[in-house]
Design a protein that fits this description.
Blueprint: H1 2-21, H2 25-29, E1 37-42, H3 49-53, E2 60-65, H4 75-87, E3 92-98, H5 102-109, H6 114-129, H7 131-134, H8 140-160, H9 163-170, E4 176-183, E5 188-196, H10 199-204
Parallel strand pairs: 1-2, 1-3, 3-4
Antiparallel strand pairs: 4-5
Helix pairs in contact: 5-6
The structure holds zinc ion.
């Protein structure tokens, strides 16, 4: 119970501090939200999306799973993208992987079972597909970071190819998809130079 008590106490302090810094912020936010970003990142505890980007409550929708994957068969993430794009009309979707990703490492090692195995299977397929390129990596850690970059590009494409995003572009909605990587060793968020802002961009996108 001690650990939970600590969470509750810290929450009370956070709410008090926030209300003091910006009086009425909770009352205003209780009415609606208008975030500009949907962040899709890894579940890893070392990459807290809002903190590392300086976002405040209401600024960003955050969706996290193991190894920041956008699997078209996963209705949870597909529903989140639909909600973000159709209902909230967000402007940007940011796919963010990170260095030293345990999910990617486990996929490469193949020492997983059950649900974790099922979830990591698309990464294992990417690992096989890019086997030759990944074979040039000097060590396991380097391979993990390189597959992480390949995975980010793959997930940007997966988002761009969803029906929801394609339909948004067709009706002229402004929406861009970006690929970023977070370095857990330095705290730096870097763009991977991948930005897709329309169906043509998705078609010409190669890696
Ligand atoms: Zn990770």
């Amino acid at each position: 119970m001690e650990a939970i008590r600590q969470l509750l106490e810290q929450n009370r302090k956070w709410a008090q501090d926030r209300e003091q810094q910006d009086p009425g912020c909770f009352a205003r936010q209780s009415k609606s939200q208008a975030p500009k970003f949907l962040w899709i990142g890894c579940i890893d505890s070392r990459m807290p999306a809002e903190q590392l980007t300086g976002m405040e409550p209401g600024d960003m929708l955050v969706y996290r799973n193991i190894a920041n994957q956008v699997n078209p068969k996963d209705t949870s993430i597909m529903a989140a993208i639909q909600f973000a794009v159709d209902a909230l009309q967000i402007d940007h979707i940011v796919i963010t992987g990170h260095t030293n990703c345990g999910g990617i490492s486990a996929a490469i090692k193949g020492q997983v079972t059950d649900d974790l195995q099922t979830w990591l299977n698309p990464l294992q397929e990417l690992n096989s597909e890019y086997g030759e390129e990944l074979g040039h990596c000097g060590c396991h850690d380097e391979k993990v970071d390189h597959l992480c970059e390949i995975n980010i590009k793959k997930q940007v494409l997966n988002v761009a190819e969803t029906e929801v995003v394609q339909n948004a572009w067709k009706r002229g909605q402004k929406l861009s998809i970006h690929g970023c990587i977070y370095d857990v060793a330095s705290g730096e968020l870097r763009t991977m130079g991948i930005h897709v802002s329309g169906p043509d961009g998705a078609e010409s996108f190669t890696f």
